[in-house]
# Entry
Amino acid sequence: MTIAQAQQPLVFIVSGPSGSGKSTLVAKMLEVPGTMFSISSTTRPPRTTETPGKWYDFISEEEFERRAGRGDFLEYARVFGKNWYGTPRRSLEEAQRKGLDLVLEIDVQGAEQVKQKLPAAVAIFILPPAREELERRLRGRGQDSEEAIQRRLERAQQEIRRYTEYDFLVVNDDVERAGREVQAITVAARCLRIPPNSSREPRPYPERQMLQHSPGRWLAYWPR
Ligand code: 5GP
# Structure
């Protein structure tokens, strides 16, 4: 057995408000060899563009309750106060069996639960550019009513306040650069000597590290 094989696979958590482009960045992470995606179970109906079993396992509320009751989920949460979403434990088991790093695209509530159970999980928060740009992207998707857009923006603001619970911040104002950043994080996390800080204390971004594209600079523009 090589040293690489003897290591436990990593768990990556990726969160970010809708419109932050996190799915695109997750796809970039999955281009890194040795990674696999965790297919969540959800009670949300599939969108016309979604193939069941690719990004989600679409199930009924009754089935979701049954699985939750059996303890089948590593974490689960009701998102937008409406639909249920959960990470099946068997994704983690499969990743461990195959020796692959597991990528979870989950919301802030799910991330909190995973961090409690697996403190060594590497949590990445995707920040959208300024609010106006987020609003433009949400409208551009042509998917939501005006009321839904306002709800998503409000929720985005609430979610963004929890960025301090994450190990890495990536600003998705330029998808090429952000893609390189998430891939770099994936690779670098494998070389970490100690797991990321799992403390829930807010860690203010040091101002002297505010480079042009750094999340710290970005945060200065986003109301907290
Ligand atoms: P959407 O319905 O737009 O695909 O996703 C809505 C939200 O649910 C997103 O923030 C997404 O990250 C989150 N989500 C997707 N799968 C899971 C999951 O398994 N657990 C949790 N807690 N959230 C999830």
User: Anything to note?
Assistant: Confidence is low (pLDDT under 50) at residues 205-213. Residues 18, 40, 44, 75, 77, 79, 85-87, 105-107, 109-110 surround guanosine-5'-monophosphate (CB under 6 Å). Residues 3-38+100-216 form a domain with the Rossmann fold fold (CATH 3.40.50.300).
